[in-house]
Specification:
It is a single chain. Strand 5 and strand 6 form a beta hairpin. This protein has two domains: 236 residues, no CATH class; 125 residues, Sandwich (Immunoglobulin-like), CATH 2.60.40. By secondary structure, the protein is an alpha+beta fold. The strands form five sheets. Strands 4, 5, 6, 7, 8, 11, 14, 15 and 16 form a nine-stranded antiparallel sheet that branches. Strands 1, 9, 10, 12, 13, 17 and 18 form a seven-stranded mixed sheet that branches. A four-stranded antiparallel sheet has the order 19-20-23-22, with no helix packed on it. The protein is built from three helices and 25 strands. About 2% of the residues have low confidence.
């Protein structure tokens, strides 16, 4: 009987040990991968934030002319586990730069001459080598795309076309690929010079893409009477007759850094300086279809306790609403309102020939506070880009006591 009792105790201990081993094996096989997958998923959230910051740093380097540095958390280490075993130290990531993204800008001047500029821009790709089905994170033309290979999405909005203006980021860097578990820094420099083209009549921009489906979605609501954007094959194509001047980044690019610039196609026309007529009317009334601005009227009212003004004017013989401008910086006290397009245009017909006439309005802009008997100057100008004429007029308004 004593022997039977000893055997029973041994059998019991073996059963308990087997149960513990089964539990351990079950946790090791089923739970450790779940825990590590959570670590990897959280790491991908961190890297997505890094890529979003990189996108912002590229924009800031290009627009502010300031060198930037972006950190990318390339990999993540699994936490130490007391009794359980990780499949490895952690997950490494790879950051790649593809510098074969072609951008071409073709433009026609109002005089009929044409020219073009070409750039090799870059696509920046992050890929984690983990156990979960995590997507590649891809920077392309100012958006971040999640790419699973068989599918891709983006939660970004496009910033290529905004209020009739076009902004194309250019990221120039050498092709490279680097894998690491550590944090890596990308140094971003800026193009140190730009070249400006004025008196633009028409622009065509072509850009390579690996994600035509995403860009079709991003650009589906941007078309206007003067600007169209669409995707054909692996090309993004933008055509516009609204651009009046282009700013192109230029410089010799060296290795060892990313160079960020921005191609700007602007609807703005400052009172032009050609032939010494800066800020002055330049028309030949003996020729047909010269531009004019007449019947200028400014009215005021109080809205939400603030004084606001509305300008109404009749403009003739301009080639688009983008050719009508007002400098409201003095009357509003806002230096950024030096080139404002009208808020409305009626009937909105800009065909030449025949002669056209439109009633335009700048509606309910704020009026700056004034002391004593202050006055403000408002400058209006209109351009006919077909015959290279502009009409400029300035009015003085009393701000106080009226």
């Amino acid at each position: 009987m004593k022997n039977d009792k000893g055997v029973s105790e041994i059998v019991g201990m073996l059963l308990i040990f087997m149960m513990l081993m089964t539990l351990y094996t079950t946790i090791q096989v089923t739970q450790v991968p779940v825990w590590n997958a959570k670590v990897e998923s959280e790491h991908m959230d961190v890297v997505y934030g890094d890529m979003t910051t990189l996108k912002s740093d590229i924009e800031n380097a290009a627009t502010l002319k300031t060198p930037m540095s972006s950190d990318i958390h390339m990999g993540v280490k699994y936490p130490d586990r007391i009794i359980f075993i990780n499949p490895g130290v952690g997950v490494a990531g790879t950051l790649s730069i593809e510098n074969d993204v072609k951008i071409r800008v073709d433009y026609t001047l109002t005089g009929g001459d044409s020219d073009y500029e070409e750039y090799n821009s870059s696509r920046i790709i992050y890929e984690a080598h983990g156990t979960i089905n995590s997507p590649k994170l891809v920077y392309e033309h100012g958006v971040i795309i999640r790419d699973w290979g068989t599918a891709n999405i983006t939660t970004d909005t496009q910033s290529l076309i905004v209020n009739g203006n076009i902004y194309i980021p250019v990221v120039n860097g050498s092709s490279s690929s680097k894998s690491s578990l550590e944090t890596e820094s990308l140094n971003i420099k800026h193009y140190t010079s730009t070249s400006t083209r004025t008196k633009i009549k028409y622009v065509n921009i072509t850009m390579d893409t690996k994600y035509p489906g995403r860009w079709k979605e991003l650009l589906k609501n941007v078309n206007t009477s003067y600007t169209t954007a669409y995707v054909s094959g692996d090309k993004i194509i933008i055509n516009t007759s609204a651009t009046r001047h282009i700013v192109l980044p230029t410089r010799e690019v060296t290795t060892g850094a990313l160079y960020a610039g921005i191609i700007t196609c602007s609807t703005s026309i400052y009172p032009q300086s050609g032939s010494g007529w800066l800020g002055r009317t330049n028309i030949d009334p003996t020729k047909p279809y010269y531009p004019t601005i007449t019947g200028i009227d400014i009215t005021y009212k109080t809205k939400a306790g603030k004084k606001v003004g509305t300008i109404t004017a009749t403009v003739t013989n301009v080639t688009s609403p983008y050719d009508i401008h007002a400098d409201l910086s003095d009357i509003t006290g806002d230096p950024l309102k030096f080139d404002e397009l009208p808020d409305s245009s009626d009937p909105g017909n800009y065909l030449i020939p025949p002669h056209n006439s439109n009633t335009v309005k700048w509606i309910e802009f704020p009026i700056r506070d004034a002391k004593g008997h202050e006055h403000a100057v408002v400058t209006l100008w209109a351009v006919n880009t077909d015959n290279d004429m502009q009409y400029v007029t300035t009015i003085t308004e009393k701000l106080s006591g009226g």
